[in-house]
Structure prediction request, 269 residues.
Amino acid sequence: MKYDPIKKVLGRFFSGSLFMRKSFYFMLDLLLLRTWHVKRVLRMVSAGYSNDMKILDAGCGFGQYTWRMSRMNSFSRIKAVDIDSEHIADCAAFFDNSGLSDRIFLETLDLTKLSETSCYDLILSVDVMEHIEEDEKVFGNFCNALRDKGSLIISTPSDKGGSDVHSEHEDSFIGEHVRDGYSRIDITEKLTRAGFGKINVKYTYGLPGNISWRLSMKYPIKMLNISYLFFIVLPFWYLIFFPVTLILNYLDLKISHKEGTGLLVIAQK
Prediction:
């Protein structure tokens, strides 16, 4: 199942006016469960740093987390990078029109080639590591790029069905993934070898979140992989299921999960 072509279509549709782009970010904030978890952790982690903190959004995609972090702290300086030059050009136009180009900087970059040293207080990586084969090299680059006591936040699928894979014979739901998910032990060991000290890994997307993901993401994406004509149906789909996903997202955020299809990692250098 291919996800990137659908993302690009959505990005182009919402890349026009500032109102459209901000509305798109608002909808993603409500719809995507990972955003609920990441927002809470961002508030918690950023509270431990000064207002003029320097942040790297490592794999910024549509730029929704860069936008959110810029609004959480009006003094922070953010560098947003992505391997996709189309994403970077699109985000650059939006942030320039938003009057934020003086403290948000964008660059097309392969994270395996990240070479900065002791630059950032915080690095955020959301739905990125499952796409990168040389993950330990990237973890090492992240550690080198952080200042002492700097923090890394990662959101990624777990090995408990995070790519909708429940046995060794199943294919990933997202065709662009190079791994089906991390175990808590695996990602902890890799981050430790990369040079991180204090590492906290918890599950997200428990039972409520998994149901929410199927209603809000899996089934709509499967329909769109059949035909883009299903874009016509999507507003009616979400009109029915959007209230349900909000309740499920809230429950997933509040419940502590023994297992889940997502992992949320906080690691400190």
